[in-house]
Design brief:
heterodimer; A: 981 residues; alpha+beta; 7-stranded mixed beta sheet; 31 helices; 42 strands; 26% strand; disordered N terminus; B: 259 residues; alpha/beta; Rossmann fold; 7 helices; 11 strands; 25% helix; globular
């Protein structure tokens, strides 16, 4: 039976036959967590729509052999009436159970649909034309009004950015083939006044300021012509904050409080060169092979291999479509590592969200609930990392109300390559080869989008900015490119990230020039204007420069691994970037202007003095009656400190077989590791490396300068705690900041950048890569600007010559001695104690960062090399008591700690400090250890016990005695014995 | 001469390198070949002594994990696979490879490939992906891979669709009767998991982690013994030094070299 000639549409509903379908139960739990309690049951079904000239037996074959699993699912087939009509929701029966159906918007990447078409052909069903997928939810309950259903659909079951929903049957949205057009608009800038120029920048969402628009206007005058839209878009993208880091490259005039005793330069002529890059220069480490010049920083590893590391943010896309945003965030940073010809071998992710328990009524308009953002982001990272076969081994999750509308998603990737195997020799005549995914409208203007403040309409206007990843396509890129690298098939490589081909080809052609034919670019669907093809941020694409003689070999390789390869032009020596669309030249820009024409920005910075100096403390008389045991449990249950096991286990951290220290460690594999240790199988040596991080926006709010010292110390300290060699630790910076045109925001940035310079030089740790993200602010419907706390992520990559030096943090042997080592100076400024006591905080300065820390770390490392240390854990959020509790929980062993008479117990237990560890040393190593550490602040503070309690005394009087089971239920289940979490 | 293993590679396969390393340590050579290459060059599989379907996310798990790889196996390579299986050569499918062997009907292999399937691997009972170390007890003495193994094997699982499910109780009895239950999830000390999470990480019936065909030469399992072949890989290397996954591969390789 055929309808309308060739175009029948079949609808398949696939239902689970088991009573307790886990996915359906998951949706129900989510509904209840959003207080949609009228819903008592959700049944979730898969929908598939198939269009083409199929007859009924073919549709049945498709259902039986492809679309369902006969053991666990049933399938129902309907032939839809054509033309497809939108159902009127008012005609739907308002009975106890209601249906919501969800489908992807046309043009949104749908990998399953593509596979249905491929597999149907394999089954001999060749009349299939296209497919699309959807979900069907049958909700049961009482009072299921349209209003409630719309709320459930919007808040839980669909995301308007990529999906449509319908109460009742949905009309599938097959990609309609729009008219292909080659329309190129002319952008007239000559003769415009300032207001006119800014209007053009704004209308095209270019995020260019007046000085930049003037420079482009002058260029038009010089070339005596107007720009095409594609030229203007390329300039906007090449000059975007995302691509060119103009804030960090700016001149800054600094004003500060006269009473501020700290010293800062009053002027920077180039902020980045005078801080971060200056640090790397001064440290001048010979084991750093590349810093800040390529897609990723590169260090020497084992003599034969090099390690590359890059961390990126993908904040704005994750705010509007959490799964796709995080998915393509990790996909993007992995391409950075592929872009230095390395095989990705480990991923990191650090996430900042709004509070999970935020009441729906407090949610600003146009913002997704933090729970939804969190679960979508985690699912996106899981999907990409796991499918790529890259272990996700290190990360952190931080909750703060400042991230409700503007979550932060930091994605990192580490790569391994034979030393010196990344070629950089683009030669005129080389072919410009695009590998991987096809080009669609995805992610248009992502580079400029990420450089703007978000508002309630951002989701809508930037709908086209949403990118959905296809990790298996990217996996194909790794498969092909590692072989192509080893066979020497390309002369240069770069990834397609923000700005798409425009950025990738533009960068590769920036030294000599290049010619591109846009008609050769493979498209997902027709209808893209030339500028859209050039700027599209479609994922999973790499660009390589291939000499003619290698084209056949490359093409053969791509064919075997089912990776698409397109030859779109040639590199030239004309010093111009030229783009053709068919016969017409649509872009012809001078390289020097394109890449060096951007005027330097000027910013004013206002440095505010922190309310309290670091280390400034008060007397704790008012707190003598605080319940210490209850405080410890409440700290352990704080979402920033509580176990992240559920998230960690969503990520494959074992694939590739190199993970020595896992993110979870200890007797029951649930202790919080300070970092992860990887020994790559590809290395024939015992060399290993540590990944760790430091982040503390709570400190950032109070004192960005001191925060920076403290997070660098934390990242460094975590690496040392895992056994890294302190003289071989490289770090990366990721700044997420507000709007730099506001002097206080810029003031915070200057403080942080200056501290980066000072601390990196002091710790002799080079910055090898970094990335910044500005305008992390959100204009709420209340008209107020919501800004995030100044957030600096420091990621550390530390080397060790032998994996056997690696350490975990769990107590191991009853009877061992416990040492507190480091300059212990606890303070409450920015502490988690204050976070759990919001009405009664102890207002003090941030902890000091002792200048002796690096020397202490070196001494500890000697002890580690001598195998004198059985366990090591750093003191961080929550202080000494939390550290001790975590070591007890991880080892399932009790401990006895003794505080001195002259200590304030509350301060020693819960104040926060830099530079300190708790270290377990077995009794037979005591003298050797003490001898080695004799010049440093060490203190024998207690003993590991064979009982199951954490016991603490003060002046020999017991002040805390908590069973490990209570610690565990607070930390793992966030259930506080005898109190509230 | 060392036996030579064919490792199948589909778009999205990602633990091919891990299993190649395990085979090398166990004394075999191996060659990893994309399915497309095998198809186009019409490679004859009979020159290989072992067949490996490794872990990963072939075709991105679209339409169910292993489903489209299974379709490839039964569409393009049915004769080759059947020849391999009936010749009694060692075949192993790990994680995604296990899913493909089950969804193509090669496992449990109690009835003809054309008949309705009796088993599947579906979504984990806990409704999420799970990466954790588990303990496995080798059970089957029919399975050439697990025969004679006495030690508990510790190794990671990393999957979202590993819940082994049978269409009927009779099929469960049949697996027991035929000694086809190759590996079960247990407590580290060997005590039965009794279906309790997370010892049984996915809710599999009878704590089944791996099964073999009635002849015992084809093993499919969800966990990754190939990721515990060197001591540094185990988080419990100090107090559980004998829980390596390598003996399983040594069994397979030894059998292949004796043929």
């Amino acid at each position: 039976m055929k309808v309308n000639g060739s175009a029948a549409v079949y609808r398949f509903i696939v239902k689970p036959t088991t009573a307790n379908d886990p996915r359906s139960l998951g949706y129900l739990a989510d509904a209840h967590s959003l207080s949609l309690n009228q819903i008592t049951q959700i049944q979730c079904h898969d929908l598939y729509f198939v269009r083409g000239g199929l007859d009924k037996p073919e549709a049945e074959k498709l259902a039986a052999q492809l679309l369902h699993d006969p053991i666990t699912q049933s399938v129902e087939i309907n032939l839809l009436e054509l033309p497809l009509k939108v159902q009127n929701p008012n005609q739907i029966d308002h009975s106890a159970s209601r249906t919501i159906e969800v489908a992807l918007r046309p043009g949104v990447t749908d990998p399953v649909a593509e596979q249905i078409v491929r597999a149907a052909h394999l089954l001999g069903i060749t009349s299939i034309e296209s497919a699309c997928t959807g979900l069907r939810f049958i909700l049961s309950g009482t009072d299921l009004t349209d209003e409630l259903l719309n709320l459930a659909a919007k808040r839980l079951l669909s995301n308007a950015v990529i999906q449509t929903y319908s109460l009742g049957e949905i009309t599938p949205a097959f990609s309609t083939s729009a008219q292909s057009h080659d329309l190129v608009e002319t952008i007239i800038l000559r003769g415009l006044d300032d207001a006119g120029l800014l209007a053009v920048s704004s209308a095209r969402r270019a995020a260019l300021n007046l000085a930049e628009m003037h420079t482009i206007q002058d260029y038009c005058e010089r070339e005596n012509r107007d720009l095409t839209d594609i030229e203007f878009e390329m300039l906007a993208q090449t000059w975007s904050e995302h691509c060119v880091h103009k804030t960090f490259k700016s001149q800054v005039s600094v004003k500060r409080d006269k009473t501020d005793s700290r010293s800062f330069p009053s002027h920077y002529s180039h902020l980045f060169n005078q801080t971060i890059r200056a640090a790397t220069k001064q440290v001048n480490a010979d084991w750093v092979l590349s810093a800040f010049t390529e897609n990723a920083g590169i260090v020497e590893f084992d003599g034969k291999h090099e390690l590359s590391f890059k961390v990126e943010t993908h904040n704005h896309p994750s705010a509007i479509e959490p799964f796709g945003g995080a998915n393509t965030g990790i996909g993007g940073v992995i391409r950075d590592v592929i872009g230095v010809s390395a095989k990705p071998i480990a991923s990191t992710d650090v996430l900042c969200f709004g509070p999970a328990n935020l009441p729906l009524t407090d949610l600003p308009e146009g913002v997704l609930h933090p729970r939804r953002i969190a679960s979508g982001v985690v699912a996106g990272i899981q999907d990409y990392g796991n499918k790529m076969g890259i272990p996700t081994v290190n990360g952190a999750i931080w909750y703060d109300p400042g991230y409700v509308a503007n979550p932060l998603v930091f994605c990192g990737s580490v790569g391994l390559a034979p030393k010196g195997s990344n070629p950089h020799a683009t030669t005129p005549g080389d072919h410009i080869i695009v590998l991987g995914g096809r080009t669609g409208r995805d992610g248009l203007r992502g580079a400029t989008f990420s450089s703007m403040t978000m508002d309630a309409q951002t989701g809508e206007v930037s709908g086209a900015s949403v990118q959905i990843g296809a990790p298996v396509v990217e996996k194909g890129l790794v498969d092909v490119l590692m072989l192509a690298r080893d066979r020497g098939l390309y002369n240069a490589i770069t990834d397609c990230g923000a700005g798409g081909l425009s950025s990738a080809v533009g960068e590769m052609a920036s030294e000599r020039g290049g010619d591109v034919q846009l008609k050769k670019v493979l498209l997902k669907y027709p209808g893209l204007a030339p500028w859209e093809i050039w700027l599209s941020e479609a994922q999973e694409r790499m660009v390589i420069a291939v000499p003619k003689r290698h084209l056949n070999a490359l093409s053969e390789l791509c064919s075997q691994y089912e990776v698409e390869m397109t030859d779109i032009g040639n590199f030239t020596d004309t010093d111009r970037m030229r783009v053709f669309h068919g016969a017409s030249l649509v872009l012809d820009l001078d390289n020097d202007f394109l890449h060096h024409g951007i005027p330097q920005r000027h910013y004013s910075a206002k440095i505010n003095k922190p309310r309290f100096e670091p280390g400034q403390t008060v007397c704790l008389e008012a707190q003598v009656s605080v319940d210490l045991g209850g405080t410890l449990l409440n700290l352990l249950a704080h979402p920033n400190i509580a176990s992240k096991e559920r998230t960690i286990r969503d990520y494959d951290h074992e694939v590739q077989g190199g993970t020595v220290v896992k993110p979870l460690c200890g007797l029951q594999h649930d202790g919080p590791s300070d970092g992860s240790v990887i020994k790559p199988l590809a290395s024939q040596t015992n060399h290993a490396f540590v990944l760790s991080n430091g982040l503390n926006p709570e400190y950032g709010k109070l004192d960005p300068y001191q925060m920076t010292w403290l997070v660098i110390d934390e990242a460094f300290r975590n690496a040392v705690a895992c056994g890294a060699d302190p003289s071989r630790i490289a770090i990366l910076d990721n700044f997420c900041w507000g709007d730099p045109t506001r002097p206080e925001i810029m003031g915070d940035l200057v403080q942080s950048a200056q501290a980066c310079l000072e601390a990196a030089v002091h710790y002799v740790t080079p910055f090898i890569s970094g990335k910044d993200s500005f305008n992390n602010e959100y204009l709420g419907s209340d008209g107020k600007v919501h800004a995030i706390p100044p957030t600096l992520l420091i990621s550390a990559l530390g080397l060790m010559p032998d994996w056997q030096q690696s350490l975990t943090m769990d107590f191991k042997h009853p009877g061992s001695l416990i040492y507190l080592i480091g300059e212990f100076a606890p303070a409450f400024g920015g502490s988690h104690y204050n976070l759990i006591n919001p009405t009664n905080p102890i207002e003090e300065g941030l902890p000091v960062c002792s200048k002796s820390n690096p020397r202490l770390y070196m001494a500890l490392y000697k002890a580690v090399q001598e195998k004198l240390v059985a366990a090591c854990h750093d003191l961080s959020e929550g202080g000494l008591a939390v550290t001790a509790a975590e070591m007890c929980m991880a080892g399932r062993l009790g401990a006895q700690l003794h505080l001195r008479t002259n200590e304030e117990p509350l301060r020693s237990l819960f104040g926060e400090t830099s530079g300190c560890f708790l270290v377990e040393v077995t009794a037979d190593s005591q003298f050797e250890f003490e001898d080695l550490m004799s010049n440093y602040a060490i203190r024998l503070i207690g003993k590991v016990e064979d009982h199951q309690n954490l016991q603490i005394t003060h002046a020999k009087r017991p002040i805390l005695n908590t069973p490990i089971t209570d610690l565990l239920s607070a930390w793992k289940d966030r259930k506080v014995a005898g109190g509230q979490s | 001469m060392k036996p030579n293993a064919l490792i199948l590679f589909a778009p999205g396969t990602n633990r091919d390198g891990d299993v190649a390393q395990a085979l090398a340590l166990a004394g075999a050579e191996s060659q990893t070949l994309p399915l497309k290459t095998l198809r186009e060059t019409k490679t004859n599989w009979s020159k290989y002594q072992m067949l490996v379907v490794p872990g990963g996310f072939s075709y991105a798990d679209a339409l169910g994990a292993g489903k489209l790889l299974a379709l490839d196996l039964s569409h393009y390579f049915l004769d080759q696979v059947q020849a391999f299986v009936s010749a009694g050569k060692p075949v192993i499918g790990i994680c995604n490879g296990f899913q493909a062997l089950v969804k193509s009907g090669i496992l449990p292999g109690n009835n003809a490939l054309t008949e309705t399937r009796t088993a599947t691997l579906t979504y984990n009972h806990e409704n999420h992906f799970e990466c954790r170390w588990v303990s496995l007890k080798p059970v089957s003495q029919t399975c050439l891979w697990t025969k004679g193994l006495s030690e508990i094997i510790d190794c990671p699982v990393a999957h979202g669709e590993g819940n082994f499910t049978l269409s009927s109780l009779e099929n469960a009895k049949l697996l027991t009767k035929n000694d086809q239950i190759a590996l079960v999830y247990t407590h580290p000390d060997g005590q039965t998991a009794n279906g309790v999470y997370p010892i049984n990480p996915n809710g599999s019936v009878m704590d089944i982690a791996g099964i073999c065909n009635p002849q015992g030469n084809v093993l499919g399992l969800m966990p990754h013994p190939e990721d515990h072949i060197l001591s540094f890989q185990s988080p419990d290397r100090v107090h559980r030094p004998n829980a390596s996954g390598l003996p399983l591969f040594i069994n397979g390789v030894r059998y292949a070299s004796e043929q």
